[in-house]
Amino acid sequence: MQKYNISRSNYFYSIGLSYKKADAEIRGRFSLDEDSKLALINQAKENDIESLVVTSTCNRTEIYGFAQHPFQLIQLLCDNTRGTVEEFQKVAYVYKNKEAIAHMFRVGSGLDSQILGDFEIISQLKKSAKLSRKFGLLNPFSERLVNAVIQASKRIKTETDISSGATSVSFASVQYILNTIEGVSNKNILLFGTGKIGRNTCENLVKHTKNEHITLINRTKNKAEQIAGKFNLVVKDYANLQEEINTTDILIVATGAQRPTIDKHIIQSTNPLLILDLSIPKNVDENVSELENVSLVHLDHLSKMTDQTLEERKKHIPLAESIIEDVNTEFNEWLETRKFAPTIKALKHKLNDFKVAELDTQRKKLSDFNEQQAEIISNNIIQKITNHFAHHLKDDNISTDESLELIKKVFQLEPSTKNV
């Protein structure tokens, strides 16, 4: 990427793992909470990484960044999670330069989501880019790329029906409850965790189950109260978690803890209990399955649920891909201009030096020298000349590298950088 004058490093990488090859347990080991994200970013700065964007959701953990070798980014990830390099190599992917760019477009546009057309990742990407910018780890290339991906995502949302219908992890969980439990409207439902997935699940519960026995618990009670107020639901203290579990029929866990928050020891009731774990890492210990009255369903199972809505969405993939190609082409055109931007800038400075010298000569020669008019005319000529060279360099039929070398040689701009 050096030839584009955007980075000291030669390569732009996307490294990571997703639901495609890594199961929930492995994804949990490589997940990054807010503290570990900050630690990774600080370590990147210490390691002189120039620009990177880090995303971590229930379906994937990825780093987009510049490096001389992908291992620099892989090491950052492994140093700040519970995952190892050996585990990473078994399930991971590494994309470089144009492939890495294309991958970010697919991810941000919902085409690589576990549920096709789920655009949750784009908000994560925006948030991650904002964090990188705050720490000085978002160079012009990365910023431009993220903005292009956001643009593609918006166009796909508005110009296609790929996200039509209510299909998401939160809806899939409610759909599973409706298909599995009889008389849902009369069952006691406990939602533990009111983050983004928890909030979305809560809305779907209220909308589709017609249930008036929904209780919310969150470690930070006021967050649960804000949601409860919107839907007129009951909120209980975190200290009452065990008591509430033992009086509920359906437990939905959407917490963001790094280790299980629910295990068999806090379940004392012998009544049938359905537990849905929507968390990555898993927040419900597998040992609850040892209890005969408990049925445990994890997010990965819910995400595999396909219905007519998903089949309809697949029809819109070609149009979505054409939108991505359109926006990506614009981005690549901008990228190509970065090749010659420093040379055009240097040329403009050189021409300006000529202008200053010539105006100084004419100023001494002419008693009625019109300074203002000469300045305007000179600047216009300089702009026309540099524009002419810029248009020439954009021509697909010419060799940009050879033309750059010739311009530098003729105008004695700088030492040749042909091999950089």
Summary of the model, kept short:
The protein is α/β, with parallel strands linked by helices and 420 residues long. Helices cover 52% and strands 12% of the residues. Helix 6 packs antiparallel against helix 7 and helix 8 runs parallel beside helix 9.
Mean pLDDT: 88
State the separation between the terminal residues, measured CA to CA.
Answer: 10 Å
User: Quick one: biggest sheet?
Assistant: 6 strands, parallel
Strand order in the largest sheet: 7-6-5-8-9-10
CATH architecture field of the largest domain: 2-Layer Sandwich
Along the chain, the helix and strand elements come as EHHEEHHEHHHHEHEHEHEEEHHHHH
Binding site for substrate: 57-60, 113, 118-120, 124
Keywords: NADP, Oxidoreductase, Porphyrin biosynthesis
Subunit structure: Homodimer.
Pfam families: GlutR_dimer, GlutR_N, Shikimate_DH
Description:
With 420 residues, this protein is an alpha/beta fold. The chain folds into three domains: 2-163, 2-Layer Sandwich (Beta Polymerase, domain 2), CATH 3.30.460.30; 169-309, NAD(P)-binding Rossmann-like Domain (Rossmann fold), CATH 3.40.50.720; 337-353 and 385-420, no CATH class. It contains 16 helices and ten strands. The strands form two sheets. It has a six-stranded parallel beta sheet. The chain has a four-stranded antiparallel beta sheet with strand order 2-3-1-4, with helices on both faces. Strand 5, helix 9 and strand 6 (214-217) form a beta-alpha-beta unit. Helix 8 (169-180) runs parallel beside helix 9 and helix 14 (317-365) runs antiparallel to helix 15. The chain is elongated and about 105 Å long. The protein starts with 10 loop residues before the first strand and ends in a 10-residue tail after the last helix. Pathway: Porphyrin-containing compound metabolism; protoporphyrin-IX biosynthesis; 5-aminolevulinate from L-glutamyl-tRNA(Glu): step 1/2. It is an enzyme of class 1 (oxidoreductase). Homodimer. Belongs to the glutamyl-tRNA reductase family.
